[in-house]
From TrEMBL:
Gene Ontology annotations of biological process type: actin polymerization or depolymerization
Cellular component GO terms held in the UniProt record: actin cytoskeleton; cytoplasm
PANTHER family: SEVERIN, VILLIN
Domain Gelsolin-like: 60-146, 193-245
GO molecular function: actin filament binding
Organism (species): Cercophora newfieldiana
InterPro entries registered for this protein in UniProt: ADF-H/Gelsolin-like_dom_sf, Gelsolin-like_dom, Gelsolin-like_dom_sf, Villin/Gelsolin
Name of the protein this chain belongs to: Gelsolin
Length: 400
């Protein structure tokens, strides 16, 4: 029986239209019902108390820890929560812990999983006494801060509850898998992340700037595009080494510049004449702000001081700074099409704070509605609080 035969596919989360906060919905009540007074995932003696990286996957409304040897390995049918805790020196000279929580939504995650990840992210922030910066991350456009957490990021097909296959659970049958290996630059400390992303096993997926690994079950092929970097070649070699630890198969490495490169293309259904045009395929993920959809930096105020909730433009195209923020309200900052930040003043009302994600998503949907070809819906969204601003937020709002 095929891995997904007879399974019911859950409703996928629509990243363009759906609200992942889902407060007072059936998902909200299910999560509350399935949550004990104390969430075991947060109470392992290290979460919030020690620096480091912690990752959980959402499985049937439950937060399940991921083994550390699987960190950086994600499935596109799942939702995850990632906590990064770092120890820094405060202005008083004392060491303190700062926290960033990312909820990562795979391209084919279910509505239930996405809603649970969002809800549990808020719960984890409460566990950390509201000290964390919260980030919504989408598979197709991860933020630089998320990418910087992983020297190597792997995204494979599959999902816990989606009815898709999980690679580690596949039967020993011949399954053709094509992996694309490419370098993704970030704006964080000059660090780069090498991404290993599963793509459609067809010659149209090839790009001459990257390296591709084709697993045919009984043989592994490595195709090096003529423009690939030494780092991509080295990482591809590591991936192949890991793959051959589990099974002993032949490995053949081919450069695009070799005449026998056609053999690789043929394995993917291509013909010899397809070599003439070269290979240019869009990458499965893009850099923040890398879509060319730049626009003026904008700062908005969310306030209920008048008795009604209002959302008004404060600054557009100018040099927004932390001095423009008022601790009595909530502000939404669009970093020129790179990321959307929500800043919560310490004196903001409960209503203003509770609306942060809904407002940010409504803003992104409004941008999307202005241009159906836009990829605004992929924008990372992050939430910070007055007095606990992350270094990433300060870099964004102080940039000129």
């Amino acid at each position: 029986m095929a891995p997904n035969h007879g399974l019911v596919h859950l409703k996928e989360y629509d990243i363009k239209d759906s609200n992942v906060e889902l407060i007072n919905t059936d998902i909200d009540h299910k999560v509350k019902y399935n949550s004990a007074a104390t969430e075991p995932a947060w109470n392992d003696g290290a979460v919030g108390l020690s620096p480091g990286l912690f990752i959980w996957r959402i499985e049937n409304f439950t937060v399940v820890p991921i083994p550390k040897d699987s960190y950086g390995h994600f499935f596109e049918g799942d939702s995850y929560i990632i906590l990064h805790t770092e120890e820094i020196e405060s202005q008083t000279g004392e060491n303190k812990l700062i926290h960033d929580i990312f909820f990562w939504l795979g391209a084919h995650t279910s509505q239930d999983e996405a809603g649970t990840a969002a809800y549990k992210t808020v719960e984890l922030d409460e566990f950390l006494h509201g000290a964390a910066t919260q980030h919504r991350e989408l598979q197709g456009c991860p933020s630089d801060d998320f990418l910087a957490l992983f020297p190597r990021l792997t995204v494979r097909r599959g999902g816990v509850a989606s009815g898709f296959r999980h690679v580690e659970e596949e039967a020993q049958e011949e399954i053709t898998t094509l992996l694309r290996v490419f370098k993704q630059s970030t704006a964080v400390g000059g660090r780069d992340t090498v991404v290993v992303h599963e793509v459609e096993p067809t010659w149209q997926s090839l790009d001459e700037e990257d390296v591709f690994i084709l697993d045919k079950g009984d043989k592994i092929w490595v195709w090096q595009g003529k423009g690939c970097s030494p780092m991509e070649k080295a990482k591809a070699a590591q991936v192949v080494h890991d793959m051959t630890l589990a099974k002993h198969v032949d490995v053949e490495v081919i450069s695009q510049t070799e005449s026998r490169s056609y053999r690789f293309v043929k394995e993917l259904g291509g013909e010899e004449e397809d070599l003439a045009e070269g290979f240019h395929a869009a990458r499965p993920i893009r850099s923040v702000g890398g879509s060319g959809e730049s626009r003026p930096r904008r700062l908005f105020r969310l306030s209920d001081a008048s008795g009604e909730l209002t959302f008004e433009l404060v600054n557009e195209g100018g040099e927004a700074s932390e001095g423009d923020l008022d601790g009595n309200d909530v502000f939404v900052f669009d970093d020129g099409g790179k990321e959307v930040w929500v800043w919560e003043g310490s004196g903001a009302s409960r209503v203003e704070k509770a609306m942060w994600l809904k407002i940010a998503q409504a803003y992104v949907r409004q941008l999307q509605s202005q241009d159906e070809e836009s990829q605004a819906y992929l924008l990372p969204i992050a939430n910070v609080r007055e007095g606990r601003e992350s270094s990433a937020f300060r870099r964004a709002i102080q940039a000129v």
